[in-house]
Amino acid sequence: MARKARGFHLTVAELPVVREHPLQVAVARVLTTEIAAPGHLGRHAVVWFALDLASYRGDMPFTHIQRGCISGLNDIWILWLGCAFCIELKASDGVMSDAQKSVSAAFLMAGGRYAVATSIDDVLRILDQWGVPRRHLIEPQPLAA
Prior knowledge:
The protein is of the alpha+beta class. The chain is 30% helix and 14% strand. The chain is built from four helices and four strands. The longest helix is centred in the first third of the chain and has 15 residues, at 20-34.
């Protein structure tokens, strides 16, 4: 009688908590609506994309380091008029890592624009503050007075 192979299963309690992931998915949908699909040129020559190296806990694999990958890169990158704009997405109680602080400081000193967002509304406000063209199909909720 053949034995069934036993599969590997995680229980819900064992699954890692990734609270920033749903925010990044939602932001990606909004940016696709407001600008263009990731990596595609939108109106007014705006392009955006996301980076995700967050799956590495601790040290980055040597193969990535050899290729110039670093820890602390920002989640959302926007290119427009020869300028780079980066948005770091954080849960409302999230804290930037030392690597993220270092990268953001270097990015700002090199002339890039940088911001931290904890919601879709934050992202839309940041884009508007920077003057990045978007369709304005989605508007942020007014800030509480």
